[in-house]
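Proteins fold reproducibly. Look at a sample protein:
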Amino acid sequence: MWLAFYNKQAVGDVLMLTSGTISDDHVVTESKQNITLINDRTNDQTVAVNIFNISESFEISDNGPVLLTEEQVTKVNELIKAAGFNLAIEVDNTPKLVVGYVEECKAHEDSDHLSITQTRVSEDEVLQIVCGARNIAKGQHVLVAKPGAVMPSGAIIWPGELRGVESFGMICSTRELGLAHLEDLPGIWELRPQFSVGTALADVVAAY
């Protein structure tokens, strides 16, 4: 899954694509024509692509995270191929900040404050999420940042590992979402049960 960003004023006419994180000492770059790949030297995987002078190919009106259309993704892949790179990007524009339901919650064996949850985020998707909030519990409706979510702080949520346990997202507080004005309580945001699993954050906010 690739995420797209654009900020002409701060960065210039560059479409920035990313699919994960990388340590600075692992970075290897390769440039051809208007395209630069950022690769991880440890596994030879491409984790970012910068396409310069992107407005010569199509206009982008957004500033920050960009939801590319199918036509734009096709054009991006044509540009990458024309530059001589064997790489194709795919994007997922489904909402990444959604209502989840905590189906299971157990203590982390190697921590005095972490919990391991199995949290349903759609009819056919359950995510294992490690959570540090003390008020997390089975049976709650919560707001989940799925992998690929871009937080108000600019942080991107990627799959990770906490104390040896894989975690695929984050269960959020109102402060982390920039929504403390709605409900400013310690710990995660426990939602009203009226919201069904998979409901997008924007629809939740509109109902408050």
